[in-house]
Every structure is written in C-alpha cells, then in structure tokens.
Design a protein that fits this description.
With 256 residues, the protein is an all-alpha fold. The protein has one domain. Helix content is 79%, strand content 0%. It is built from 9 helices and no strands. Helix 5 packs antiparallel against helix 6 and helix 6 packs parallel to helix 9. The longest helix has 53 residues. It is globular. The two termini are 33 Å apart.
C-alpha cells in the first residue's frame, strides 16, 4: 500500500513539474514574441518620425481625412465633450492631475505603482516632446482646415495621444492586475476604467476634428505612447517578481 502511495505521489509530482515547465516555456515564448513586437514598434516609430521630418506638409489623404471629419454634423453635446476631454489633458491640467494620481497611490501605500506611474508619464511624455523637437513638423495651417487653437508646439507626434497611452493606459493596467481584481471593492474602480478607456479612444479622433493634428501625428502619438506603456509595464512586473522572490527567500531563511 505504501509503495502504491509513493508511486502516486511521484506521479503527481511529475505532473506538477511538467505543468510548471510548460508554464515557464509559454511564458518565455510570450516574452520573446512581446520583445519582437516591441522592437518592431520602435522601428516603425523611427521610420514614421523620419518620414514626418522629411514630409512636414500634410499628405493628400491627411488633408482629405481632416476635412471629411470636420464636415460631419456632430451635435453640440458631442463637440463640447470632445473639447472638454482635450482641455483637461492639456499640459496645464496635467501638471496637477498626474501628481494627484501619484499621491493617491502613495497614500494607499502602493508606492511601487506610484513610482512607475510617475516614470511612465514623465519619461514617455518627455521623450515624445524630444521627438517632436527633432521632427519639427508644423501644426495644421488654418488656411487648409479649421483649427480650434493656433498652437506653437510641434505637430508630430501628438502629445495628447501619447499621454493617453502612458498615463491612462498605465492606470488602466494597474486597475486590472490580479491583486486589484481580488480586492473586495474592485467594482468601485469601474468608473475610472471607463473614463480611462474613453480618454484613450476619443483623444485621437478629437485632435483630428479640432484641426490640431494630422493623421500621422495621431498615429505617431499612440504608437510612441504604446511603446513606453509596454516598456514600463514590463519593468513594473519584473520589479514585482524580483521583490516577491526576495521576500520568499527571506521567509525561507527565517523558517530555517
């Protein structure tokens, strides 16, 4: 009987080891694929930046797209909503919104999340601005399309679109992590998640409709933001795993 139990335990152990091996294998494959896609996105961003640098004027399809969007008869409520979303994500309000979000995370003792949120927003938006300085693409000409505000900042890439990805994208990711999903009151975060998704989806469309950017500017902004969002999500998870392993080793040493 004891031999049968030992054999059964050994078989169970083999199954567990095989399952762990498969998980590590799939995780490794997923990491390789993600890295390849990330590098492809970086290469595409570089190519798009060089293209915008050598083609500062709008392409024919960009001009047509902007004019078609602006000719759509949106109700005044929709127009006001789009302008409101872009206004609250201007650099001025963001100076307060981002630190407040970081402070809230720190107050609830989510220090690691607060640090990475600040890094993703700060570094992502900062490098986006540096790319804009290199490309030097002018803003849409009000003689070609309607322009809500005559801005002096560079047109490529769209800073609003990039900010939506690195800031609201990271907040959305944090709200979907396993510890948060297991929180008793996690449904209370649903309005924040909806607000973040709306911000991300509406911003590019709104910037085109307002005449503040061309299509390639918006695409570049989203792509640049996605690159830094994925990068800081990877760093956040890597740091979390290393800290978890360190705690496990300390607990084992104390147990011995």
């Amino acid at each position: 009987m004891s031999d049968a139990k030992n054999v059964q335990r050994a078989q169970v152990g083999d199954v567990v080891l095989e399952g762990n091996h498969r998980k590590k294998h799939y995780r490794s494959v997923g990491l390789v694929v993600t890295c390849m896609l990330w590098l492809l996105a970086v290469a595409l961003m570089i190519a798009l930046s060089l293209f915008a640098h050598t083609h500062p004027q709008p392409l024919p399809f960009e001009l047509t797209t902007s004019r078609d969007l602006q000719s759509l008869p949106f109700p005044w409520v929709v127009q006001a909503t789009m302008r409101w979303f872009t206004a609250i994500n201007d650099p001025g309000p963001d100076v307060f919104i981002v630190p407040i979000a970081v402070l809230i995370l720190a107050l609830i003792r989510q220090f690691r999340a607060a640090i990475f949120l600040a890094l993703s927003a700060g570094i992502g938006n900062g490098i986006d601005a540096l790319i804009g300085d290199y490309v030097g693409r002018p803003r849409p000409n009000p003689q070609l399309i309607h322009v809500d505000s005559l801005l002096k900042f560079n047109s490529f890439p769209s800073g609003h679109s990039c900010h939506m990805m690195v800031f609201y994208g990271f907040l959305l990711y944090l709200s979907l992590t396993k510890p948060v999903r297991q929180w008793k009151y996690h449904l209370a975060l649903l309005p924040l998640q909806i607000f973040a998704i709306i911000n991300i989806l509406i911003m590019g469309f709104a910037r085109l409709w307002e005449g503040e950017h061309w299509v390639t500017d918006v695409v570049g902004g989203y792509l640049d933001g996605a690159i830094w969002l994925i990068f800081f999500i990877f760093l956040y998870n890597w740091t979390t795993d290393r800290l978890r392993e360190r705690r496990a080793r300390r607990a084992m040493q104390q147990a011995l």
